[in-house]
Amino acid sequence: MILDDVTRITPSAQHPMTRSWRVGAAAVAMLAAQVLLGCQPSPGATTPGAPTGPGPALTPYIEAHTHFDGDATAAVQAAVAGMTRQNAAMILFQIPPDTFDHPGHYDAEVVLDAAKQYPGKIAVLGGGGTLNAMIMQSVATGDAGPGVQQAFKARAEELLGEGVIGFGEMTAEHYSGGTPYQYAPADHPLYLLLADIAAAHGVPIDLHMEAVPEDMAVPAGVKSPPNPPRLRANIAAFERLLAHNPGAKIIWAHAGSDGTGYRTPALCRRLLLAHPNLYMEIKTDPHAVGMNYPLADGKIKPDWRALFVELPDRFVLGSDQHYPEPKGPDQRWQEIVMLFNQLPPDVRKKIGTDNIAHIYGAGVASRLSAANP
Ligand SMILES: [Zn+2]
Fold first, then answer.
1. What is the whole-number distance in angstroms between the Cα of residue 361 and the centre of ligand 1?
2. What CATH code is carried by the domain that includes residue 59?
3. CA of 286 to the centre of ligand 1 (A)
4. For residue 254, how far is its CA from the centre of ligand 1 (angstroms)?
5. Cα distances (Å, whole numbers) of residue 230 to 7, 101, 192, 216, 219
6. What is the mean pLDDT of residues 360-371?
7. How many A from CA of 299 to the centre of ligand 1?
8. Residue 2 belongs to some domain of the structure
9. Which of 108, 267, 297, 328 is deepest in the core (most CB within 10 A)?
10. What pTM was estimated for this model as a whole?
């Protein structure tokens, strides 16, 4: 499979920060699993009798993690059109975590005007193309001094002023793909600062981070270079970030899409129990099932199901769907809806909608209820 899905992005309105846009960060997670697993098809998609199909969800849900390719206005319109098919009450777009060195980097300005045409249906997290890039730049230069911190805070507040509802997609460990390989300590001074900004404004941070409990060789099948031969331990640093400001809600993206083998239900449970400000997005990609996949033959595995039922207040759905939907069967939203539909109704209500209202606060909740009475 050709993985270079770098696509031109057209801003919904020209902005001085944004000139040339390319996307493909979500392909990075795909890449990791694809190189590991050789593009295995979804188990659910290939097993006769398994509960596959186009959806929709049995009860409404909010899709908390998506990306867009190409023209931002057309992508927003495609997402709005998709909401009915999916039974989605709202769709959140995120900006790929990127670096300033990568010519394709862009941020929320390219899509905010289009998103604002659909209040209560479409909202945007920002910072992937700038705040994340500032962190990567700080890691490279070693400068996290007062000047850097001041510029970082100003940019974060600028994004909030423009209307983003959270900071994402950020990263601390991200394989190379549509964007370059990226690493930052999860307790980097700018991440601690971002936690303080997020807490002060009541918005969450959405973090992509492959799970690395101890320093390790990059998993077999993850190409090196461009990825480094070894990955640095990050769970202890992640816990320091979580503990730094308990008022900062942090969403660890991509539970169920594991590129190291360590994002187990047991690790997720331990961290959720230890850190009340931690939430997780569930991702299931039928084209890149990765390790510790939550589904087998289209059914939720017992250990994952037990975790979702035990801690129903701590998960949301974030499939990493791209809009417009790529050609072909087995969209990521279909796989996550297949999982969602197997949960008990009370758990579905929390994971589907209630937790988003709690994480994102009254602004999102009121817009949501106004748009979806
Ligand atoms: Zn991601």
1. 23
2. 3.20.20.140
3. 16
4. 7
5. 29, 22, 25, 6, 9
6. 75
7. 24
8. no
9. 108
10. 0.86
